[in-house]
Amino acid sequence: MLRYLARRLGQALLVVAGVVVLTFAVMRLVPGDPAVAFAGPKATPEELAAARERFGLDDPLPAQLVAYVRDLFTGDWGVSLRTRQPVREDLYLAFPASIELVGAALLIAVMVGIPVGVLAARYKTKFPDFGVRFGSMLAVSVPVFWLALALQLIFAGKLDWFPVAGEYDSSLDTTSPLTLWTNITVVDALITGNWPIFTSTLHHLALPALVVAAYPTGVIAQMTRATLIEESGQDHARLERALGFGETSILTKFALRPALSPVLSLIALVFAYSLVNGFLVEAIFNWPGLGRYAAESIRSRDTPAIAGVTLLVALVYVLANLVVDVLQGFLDPRARTR
Amino acid sequence: MTSPGAEVPLRRSLPRIPDRFAAFGAVLIVLIVLAALMAPWLAPYPDEPHPLEGSLPPSGAHWFGTDQLGRDVLTRVLYGGRTSLSIAVSVLAVSALGGVTLGVVAGYAGGWIRDVIMRVTDVFLAFPALLLSLALAVVLPPSVNTVILAIAVTWWPWYTRLAASVAASIATRPYVDAARCLGVPAPLIVLRHVLPNSLTPVLVQISLDAGGVILTAAALSYLGLGAQEPTAEWGLMVQQGQTLFTTNWWIGTFPGLAILVTAFAFNMLGEGLRNALDPRARTVK
Amino acid sequence: MIEVRDLRVRYAGRLAADVPELDVGAGECVAIVGESGSGKSTTLLSLLGLTQDAEISGHVRVCGVDVLAASPRGLREIRGARAALVMQSPQSALSPATRLGVLMRRALKLHGVGRGADRGGSLDEIMAESVAAVMLDRTILRRYPHEISGGQAQRFAIALAIALGAEVILADEPTSALDVTVQAEVVGVLRRLREQRGLALLLVSHDLALISTIADRVLVMKDGEVVESGPAARVLTEPAHPYTRELLEALP
Asked: Right CATH number for A97-302 from 3.40.50.10770, 1.10.3720.10, 3.40.50.150, 3.40.50.2300?
C-alpha cells in the first residue's frame, strides 16, 4: 500500500509539473504584449519598460519559466489586470463559494444518481430502465448555461419559488452577521448556528446547485447502472441467487459496493468538470465563486487571472484524482493488492 | 411453460445491434444534418440582411419569434446548425487524425518514443478538457477557427490513448510478427494491420465525442470566445438572448434547445454503438 | 429429495437439456457426466430455477416444492435454505467486496436461521460450527474472497449449505478448478456430510475418477440428451453406450 501510494504520488507530481509548463506555454501564446496589457495602452515607454522589467519579459523563455515556477511556490500568482489585486487573494476569496456550489451539486448527484442507477439496473430493459437511460442522457446533453437561464426564468422569475441570484440575502449581514471559520458560508452558518443565513443560503443554493448537478447526476446514474448490470451478471450473483437472495438485495447488498469504486473515480472527474461548468453558471446566478471570477476575467481578457484559475482547477483535479485512488483501496479490497 | 425463477425478462430480448437508442439517435442526426444542409431552402427568411420587426413572440409567421435585431430565430437556428456541425466535424477530424497517428506510432514503436508520447498525453488528460480549451481560446482572437483549434488541442489525447492500446495489442500478434520477420517495412504493417483494427473503436469514440464537442463549442461561443456577430451560432445566440430572457424568452430558448437535441442525438448514437460493439461495456446477459 | 420427470430446457427454441427421469433420495449421491455443452449444468441450474432466458417444461420437485410452478418468492425460500448450490469456480462465486462471515450472516438472517430456538445456538455458534464441519478455521469468516485459496472457498460454499440446514447440495463441477490434493479434501467433506447428515447430493462433473469414488448412480449426457443411466458401478465398468465407453477410454 505504501509503495503504491509513493508511486501514485510521483505520477501526480509529474502531471502537476506538466500542468504548470502548459499553463506557462498558454500564457506566452498571448499575441499582445503582456506589458502593454498591464500598463495600459497610454503608458509611456518608461512605464512599459518598468512593466517588462517587473515581469521579466526580456529574459529568455526558460529563465521566465523558472521565475514563473519560483513565483508560484512563493505564493506570487501574479496580479489581476482587472481587479488589480494579487490573483492568489482573488482566488482565495472566490474558492469557498465554488466549493459550496459544487459540493452541493455533487451531493445531489450522488443522492439521485446512485439510487436511480440501481433502479435502472434492477428493472433492466423495462420501463424504469428506459426512463433512466433517457433522462440521464438528457442530463449530460443539456447546455448548462441554457439550463441555468431556463430554470431561473421558470422557478425564480415566473413561480418565484427561489431567489433569482446571490449567495444569501445580504441584508442578513447586518441583522445576524456571520462568523467566518471555513469561509464556506453554508458550513460556517451551520457550525455557528446562524439559522437565518443558513436557510437563506440553502434557498439561494438550490437552483444553481441543481443546474450544476445535471451533468454529474447523469454520468453517475449511467455508470452505476452499467457497473451494476455487469456485477449482477458475474458468477457471484448466481451464487447469491442460489442462496435465495432476491434481485434487489443482490444489487444493493453485494453488487453495489464493488460497483461504487468506478463511480467514485468518476466523482473526482466530474468534480473538476463541475468547477469548470461553474464558469458558465455562476455568473448567471451572480454566485461569488471561481466561475463568476473566471467569466469576468475572460470577458476582460485578464490573462494572469485566467492562468491562476486554470492552474488552481487543474491542481484540484489532480488532487481529487489522487484522493480517489487512495480511497479506492479502502472501498475495493482487491485494489489494495494491485 | 417458462421458468419463474429467472426474474429477468423471459421474452427473448430484442437483438442488441441496432440498439433502439442508437437507431433513434441516428435518425435524429440525419434530420439535423439535413436541416443544416438545406437551411437556405428550409429557412423561412433566408435573405438575412433585411430586418423584420424586432422581438416578436413565436407566431405563425415566425415559429420561433424574432430576435432584438428583427431576425427570424428559426432561420438563425437552422443556419446555426451549419456552424455547430462544421465545428464538430473539423474538431473531430483534426483530433482523430492527429491523435490516432501519434497513438499508432507510440503503440507500434514502443520504447522511449512511446513513453514520451504517453507522458505528454497524460498531462493533457490531467486537464479538464473544457478548462484547457477556455484558457487557449482566451489568448487567441475570438473566431470559429479559434474554437476548432482550442477544442482539438484538448481532444486528441483520447484518440492517442485509444489508438496506442489497440496498436500495442496488435503489434504483438503472431501475423504481425511474421510480417516483420519477412521484412515488410513498418509503415506498411501499420497501414495494413494496425490502422484497420483501430478504425472501429475510433469511430465509436468519435460518435461518443461529437455531443461533447458541440456542447464545448457552444460554451466557448456563449462566453464570447468563438463565433462573432453576425454569424449564427447557437451558443452565441443564447448569450445574445440572455439579457432579454425574462421578457423575450424565445430568443435564447430555441438555440439552447437546438444544442440540447443535437448533443442528445449524438450521445444516444454513441452510447448505443458502444453497447453494440464493445463487448466489455455491453450490458451483460 | 429431487424428482425430475420429462424436463426439457430450451434456449431460443434450441433444446439444451432433455432429462426424462432423475431422482435423488436423502443420503444418495447421483452424478451427471458429460462433456461441456452436454446440458449437464443447465439441468442442474434449472432445478433451482436459475437458468436465464430459458423455456422450461416438465415436472421438477425439489424438497417437495414444484419448482416450475413456484412463485419467485417460494423459489427463493428453497434456494439456499433447503437446496444449496456449489459452483465451479470457487473464488469468482463469492462477492469480492464482502467478507465471508458477512455473506454467511446475511444468508442466515435471510432464511431466519438462528432466530428463536429452531436449531439451537446463536448465529455465531451456527457459523462457527458449520465452518468447523468443513475443517476450516473460524478466522476465515473475517476474510475476503481474494484472501483465501480455491479449496477453502469451495469448502466455505459447503459450509454455507450446512449452516443454512440444506438437505440437498447441487454441485456444479465442484473440483475441476482445484488441484489434486485439494480435490481430495473437498470430496472428503462432501462424502462425510452425506454419511453423517444424510444430505442428498447431485453432482455435475466430467471427472469420472471423482464420480467413481462418490456416486451411487450416474447419468451420462451428450448434446442435451441422457444417453445412459444406472448404478455407478455398472455404468463405469460395463458401459452400454459407445459415448460412455469413449469417456472411459479417455481416462488416463
From this structure: 1.10.3720.10
